[in-house]
Amino acid sequence: MFFASDNTSGVPAPVMDALVRANDGFAAGYGNDTVTLSLRDRIRNLFDAPEAEVFLVTTGSAANALAIASHCPPWGAVFCHELAHINVDECGAPEFYTNGAKLVPLGGAQAKVAPETLADALARAGKGGVHQVQPGLLSLTNLTECGTRYSVTALNALCGLACDHRVPVHLDGARFANALVAEGCSPAEYSWQAGVDTLSLGGTKNGLMGVEAVVIFDPARAWEFQLRRKRGGHLLSKNRFLAAQMIAWLQDDLWLKLARHANAMAARLEDGLRQHPDARIVFERGGNMLFVQLPRAIHTRLQAAGAQYFLWPDHATLDGPQDVPVTGRLVTSWSTTESDVDAFLRALDVA
Amino acid sequence: MFFASDNTSGVPAPVMDALVRANDGFAAGYGNDTVTLSLRDRIRNLFDAPEAEVFLVTTGSAANALAIASHCPPWGAVFCHELAHINVDECGAPEFYTNGAKLVPLGGAQAKVAPETLADALARAGKGGVHQVQPGLLSLTNLTECGTRYSVTALNALCGLACDHRVPVHLDGARFANALVAEGCSPAEYSWQAGVDTLSLGGTKNGLMGVEAVVIFDPARAWEFQLRRKRGGHLLSKNRFLAAQMIAWLQDDLWLKLARHANAMAARLEDGLRQHPDARIVFERGGNMLFVQLPRAIHTRLQAAGAQYFLWPDHATLDGPQDVPVTGRLVTSWSTTESDVDAFLRALDVA
Amino acid sequence: MFFASDNTSGVPAPVMDALVRANDGFAAGYGNDTVTLSLRDRIRNLFDAPEAEVFLVTTGSAANALAIASHCPPWGAVFCHELAHINVDECGAPEFYTNGAKLVPLGGAQAKVAPETLADALARAGKGGVHQVQPGLLSLTNLTECGTRYSVTALNALCGLACDHRVPVHLDGARFANALVAEGCSPAEYSWQAGVDTLSLGGTKNGLMGVEAVVIFDPARAWEFQLRRKRGGHLLSKNRFLAAQMIAWLQDDLWLKLARHANAMAARLEDGLRQHPDARIVFERGGNMLFVQLPRAIHTRLQAAGAQYFLWPDHATLDGPQDVPVTGRLVTSWSTTESDVDAFLRALDVA
Amino acid sequence: MFFASDNTSGVPAPVMDALVRANDGFAAGYGNDTVTLSLRDRIRNLFDAPEAEVFLVTTGSAANALAIASHCPPWGAVFCHELAHINVDECGAPEFYTNGAKLVPLGGAQAKVAPETLADALARAGKGGVHQVQPGLLSLTNLTECGTRYSVTALNALCGLACDHRVPVHLDGARFANALVAEGCSPAEYSWQAGVDTLSLGGTKNGLMGVEAVVIFDPARAWEFQLRRKRGGHLLSKNRFLAAQMIAWLQDDLWLKLARHANAMAARLEDGLRQHPDARIVFERGGNMLFVQLPRAIHTRLQAAGAQYFLWPDHATLDGPQDVPVTGRLVTSWSTTESDVDAFLRALDVA
């Protein structure tokens, strides 16, 4: 009953097999190998973006921070939702990589930036001239931190506002696959066609060992990205082992299948939880994350039964009156099984 | 009718005289001169802080950013009011000098950080462990950006909370003198005795050409500050010309007299404005700043009559329906005259 | 005939097997798993350093830059050999991570910092007071960039000088294992007992996929390192896959066996090359790297025969008079075979 | 007998008078005043550069670091002489402002970068691709740190090399006036016409209180500079007091007269010293600095007689055998008098 995060899972067999196959003899270092080149071409095809550049790193924080720094100056305002991972969970990585850009946290229901909030922020930004940080970048997260999902329409609207102010858009796609299969659109529609300039395409949470691709749709930014990646210590000499994983993951739509499975497990969990009289689903489920309010006593019981998940937000606690509801954050993954879900629901007496 | 800012004023005669006197022959460079040493000793006496170190810079942004960086690591959270100058008007100087610390904007009525808001923020900060920025520093501003004033009691309460979490406190005292004379306490009571670790003691807005002292109450931080100052390009070779100004300013309580005058002019302005049926004073006046809501038509008339001041906030505008009230920000200074004030009030038909 | 770098090799079977085994079910993220904990304990034992902290990253540049930044302030001078990887081949990663520390390149024969050179540099450093960067850190590389090796005695002497000036010591051990087995001492003797404060313990060049351990002998520095690692985007969520590789590598002294093999292959290459009348070994071979001067014509012939290696330094070229000697840099690895070596020597007509 | 530095002097009467005049009433803040605008126009005329932008700061380190950062990316190599002020005496300010660019110290006789040395460095730079810092900027100093002077021809040659590699050129002109009057060319010939992209035009060492102008010949870089200046805390609110000083200094060629006087005093010193049998002039005098080798015993005697100057380099000392020659660095200024010089020479028994 591991629902703490999709990054507590391992990797599926085809990915491991690809690693074994990649471990054959010598290969040029630092991404100059044929496997890496081949991955780039696949992603270009997949996104219908023949000029996009693709670079691999091993963490989502690195992907985000490097992508942001390559599109935003040190005196830029980075507009993002106040709950965004880059704002809350990366220990200041974006500030570090940009050399001190300012994250401007925006409110918004369901962890989604509302167009009017963004419009206001853009309209005000930098109006004080040199005294203020300048409009720099819009960073959206999809799935959001609360597991909700931007529709293609919503994404277009937000990117359009940014574009009107000549502000580039970064998409933190740590769970891009989960959003994509739920939305049912194409990768292109869900990224550059909507106005996204650079995408952190997450692999780790969906079945890789620590592989994230940064897709840069404007190739003019690519060389700077490469220098920043090296300088950040994120250029792996044996890059083929990252690329091989991601190729296997893309092969035969495996990444989409894994994401669909994770989403289905979350749906099963949601269905069960909705049977429980004391459970309240907090956010609209957009993919493989579920936020559910339950009395502390029930969380205590679930955890005693072996369920692993975090309370939300970070400072929530099971200490205190046991009838008070607190929120649990349940994340399913490609490797979550129906029996995991059902065991959880049984512990809740709803299965 | 110059009410745009106290920094549009010049310097009083004793300061200019001191400059002339300081311009006599040769002096050791980089603050190793006797004038600089003498200033340090005066400030130590004034603050009853015999071990404090005192360093001069030429802007408030430099004073704030260097003081903050010397007390807060790159991964620190800098708690401040959302309207704080460091958050809004320094183009990211604190982020730059700290190498990417994160400013955590706190709400609070009257531009003052409320104790409960701070307590909450401190309680939550860094609870996510290594994923999050750590409690770093509390930066307060007194007078605040909205011209309100923390009482000694309020200052003690906020600093006490910070101290409980081992978080040092910076005080942005760009208008420290204005606050001090209004509060009627001693410099020590209004700084280190309340729990302030480092103070940006503003001279520029109160009669100097561009002189701000950073007072560091914990001498263990002083060497780092000096290196940061040099590295930031803020160590003047002819430092005596800064020190001489500030000595003249402290002499015979000139700085307090200047501040009292500025405050008195603001009070006169307030008294007059309160006579006007359409005027609404927006924030409690703590010193020499006044925020007043007036219909656009009246602002238009005042400005046509030659009154110079800014609307607030930055994005406010006189374009639009003329009966709608918008806020003007009026700042008086040591060189504001009664006739300036009265001319303004006459233009309003209240004098 | 792949002699371009030891990082063009793959990983040995036990490492791959360990990855497969680690891929079993769920594990806590971000290094809070039992595999990571177990690795830390092994390294503590191996280095006879029960309080050392051990953190994993995926590149040598990250290991170096993070280790350096955790031991040297922004205004520090980082003393290193002018040919050091950190100075020449990391695109400014140390400057980036330290927020602008200054690398002070020192000369020295055989790519080794000579004690007198270091003593001079330390004696002069920071003598100009606040105007100059301050003595910050000594970074040594062993094996050096030219494949030479510091003896235990030499290492002690250099670290001793640093210690006399209260300057901590970083050891870039990208090829630590190769040096260690050649020197025939213990890991402790070759690190902290000699005066090393922090070690980049390289795994990648000696059989791992991209795993480097930073060993911090002073645990007081560990928390800062962890924050810097996170902030740099170098904390992997599925950290177990890094730790598992390194555990397999340490198991039954595999790492030492791999290193001994690589060194033996370089020795075989050296023996052969010494037979050739036009070959001149440029640097004393300390482990698995060989720098050999040959006329351009011979390099051309070797490369035509399929030998892969770099000329040295970077700007050397095969264009120009073919009788002029230029230097080739040959690196062997755990996976270099005798037949690779012999094929190379045959192409040279010396085998 | 103050020969420690030209920055130990004060300011001439016309500069002080201008300050007094500028202190009249209110003026717009932050450089939006008419005095600042007027200065910009004068410098444009003076340099025959109608599109140049001009910004004021209060230290040479700030001028240099901001100018460099506005023309060189974080991953840039900054080529400069190994003795350059930016490399030796600014505590890492360029590294800080650029976010970690790497200063590449070049040798060269007489503290001047030799064309062949620069050509080599440019030819090698960045040849290792993404692993290395990229050619970023050439920074020259004129007068050099050793008081020598680049001829217009030499300056053209060096800038030409940089231009061939698309590397912009910064000129540290802390003593630009001293060089200019000695060379006898126009400001334009000695800057942009020779290929300089940005100039730190020093006022402080030649009679101002702490005023340096950064002249940016490519206006496309100006907005970035302004943001960096603000962010660095170097935008003074009462900027008129800086501008007024520099206007007075330019008026009626005062700056040139002051520089000529300083140079003449250095010439008088040199003439006298050349009479002394044990004196050896170390570097060709280019303006107002003199480096002279004398036995320690003579330095001791001079200093006992009240002569103030530094030994060179920083770590030189009067401790040790008194017959050993060490170098003294003598700097004259606009306020050095003939009687100062003659007193010095008398103490040497050569006048």
From TrEMBL, chains A, B, C, D:
Leading EC class: lyase
Catalytic activity: L-allo-threonine = acetaldehyde + glycine; L-threonine = acetaldehyde + glycine
Coiled coil spans: none
Matches recorded under SUPFAM superfamilies: PLP-dependent transferases (SSF53383)
InterPro entries cross-referenced by the UniProt entry: ArAA_b-elim_lyase/Thr_aldolase, Low_specificity_L-TA_bact, PyrdxlP-dep_Trfase, PyrdxlP-dep_Trfase_major, PyrdxlP-dep_Trfase_small
Required cofactor(s): pyridoxal 5'-phosphate
A Pfam match: Beta_elim_lyase
Domain Aromatic amino acid beta-eliminating lyase/threonine aldolase intervals: 3-280
EC number: 4.1.2.48
Swiss-Prot/TrEMBL keywords: Lyase, Pyridoxal phosphate
Similarity remark: Belongs to the threonine aldolase family.
Main function: Catalyzes the cleavage of L-allo-threonine and L-threonine to glycine and acetaldehyde.
Self-association and partners: Homotetramer.
Protein name: L-threonine aldolase
Source organism per UniProt: Roseinatronobacter alkalisoli
